[in-house]
Amino acid sequence: GYELFDFAFTGPPFFDYEHYGEYMPIYGNWIEEFYVPLFKITHDHLRAGSFFAVYLNDTSAGAIERFMLEEVPEFTTFAFRGKIGLIGGSSGTVRDVFVFQKEYGRV
Fold first, then answer.
1. CA torsion sign, 51 to 41 to 70 to 23?
2. Using CA atoms, how far apart are residues 87 and 73, in angstroms rounded to an integer?
3. How far apart are CA 102 and CA 87, in angstroms?
4. pTM of the model
């Protein structure tokens, strides 16, 4: 087995603000190559009833929100519970944090 947690929080890549070196991936690959494994692995390491919060600055990668709300429930037991706000450092901008809960009774 592996360790289980009660809560997970992440801030995935920000396409408009970060450069990922000479191997800068094409956005289309990120859902399958980054977000799907992120949600699956996090799901596997959370206890039932636990929460997963995803800080998302969904700028150029607009399909990520749709992916999280429509596709993630198809391959995990995560249920979207709502959004909370996170105030950005120097900008003071309120940014979305999507909150999911791993449901009880489903694998």
1. positive
2. 27
3. 25
4. 0.81
